[in-house]
Design a protein that fits this description.
This protein is an alpha/beta fold. It has twelve helices and ten strands. The longest helix has 14 residues. The radius of gyration is 20 Å and the shape is globular.
Length: 278
């Protein structure tokens, strides 16, 4: 099954994020085969890692019995289909975010993993960001007391050209929307840090991307959590000039906040150097 006890991986969807997956896979295991319906992309990634190229997931799964784990890096709207096919073929699955674009599809993916007795991991790397880990710890330790209200702001800049970088971006059925492709990490953090949302209501608008994307570019949401906390989410891809997380003022404010929350922990220092590398 394995070569020097290393795990055999496969990868579906050989675009941008697949490059990162391939790099990390080869640090920890062996990338045996890749698949993309774009022949050039599959061939290029395969050649780089000395892997075999396939051009359909069906041929890939039929041809690769030895692979134990499959990375799904295809467009959002294909995550459910590709994950379920992989689980049926008895592979463990690492699936990119967002998990899927409907709750029903997420349910089907979880059911299939249970039926196949295989692991299903969804990529949510922001949970491992030093400030997020630190915040999770202080909340879990009760050092912030009971959380009563939350405010989340996501101000990014995504112009028309960005949506032309992949044919699925901006399409309702393959992308899902701004809360899926851009901000699903932050929605995940709300659930992870605060808890499950009981009810939500909001407003959305497409102010600067009419004709370019099939959904909103801006939204506001008011939420009530099951634990009684209330909160707001304010998001846009129309942030002036650039994504606000790159603004130095914001960085300073975040550093200050972390230091205030964690006066005795070294994580503030880790966080600062982490930011420098971002
Ligand atoms: N975790 C993160 O922070 C992060 C960052 C970027 C992207 N992503 C996610 O990764 C996924 C891919 O994003 P990307 O930016 O690499 O997009 P991309 O367009 O660069 O790559 C997607 C690839 O999938 C291929 N593909 C399309 N249909 C296919 C099919 N039927 N079978 C096989 N391959 C198919 C395309 O040809 C393309 O090469 C998305 O779900 C995105 O949300 C996650």
């Amino acid at each position: 099954m394995t070569n020097n006890k290393k795990i055999f991986f496969g990868l579906v969807g050989c675009g941008r994020i697949a490059q990162r997956h391939a790099e990390h896979i080869t640090n920890n295991g062996i990338l045996k085969a890749v698949c993309d319906n774009d022949v050039k992309k599959a061939d290029e990634l395969a050649a780089k890692y000395n892997a075999k190229a396939y051009y359909s997931i069906e041929d890939f799964l039929n041809g690769e019995q030895e692979i134990q784990v499959l990375s799904i890096c295809s467009p959002n709207g294909l995550h459910a289909q590709h994950t379920i096919q992989a689980l049926k073929a008895k592979k463990h699955v690492v699936c990119e975010k967002p998990m899927a674009i409907t709750v029903a599809d997420c349910g089907r993916m979880i059911n299939e993993a249970e039926k196949a007795n295989r692991r299903l991991f969804i990529i949510k790397q922001n949970r491992f960001n030093p400030p997020v880990e630190a915040l999770k710890k202080v909340i879990d330790d009760g050092r912030l007391g009971k959380i009563l209200s939350v405010q989340l702001s996501c101000f990014w800049n995504r112009n028309f050209d960005y949506y032309k970088t992949s044919d699925w971006k901006g399409k309702k059925n393959m992308d899902g929307g701004t809360l899926y492709t851009q901000f699903s990490h932050f929605i995940d953090l709300l659930y992870w840090l605060i808890g499950d949302v009981k009810r939500a209501t909001g407003f959305i608008g497409n102010f600067a991307h009419e004709g370019g994307i099939e959904f909103e570019d801006t939204g506001v949401v008011a939420m009530e959590f099951y634990n009684g906390a209330i909160g707001t989410l304010n998001y846009t891809v129309n942030s002036y000039g650039k994504t606000i997380r790159e603004e130095s003022k914001m960085r300073k404010r975040m550093r200050y906040t972390i230091r205030k929350i964690l006066p005795n922990l070294t994580v503030g220092v880790v966080f600062e150097s982490f930011l420098k590398y971002k």
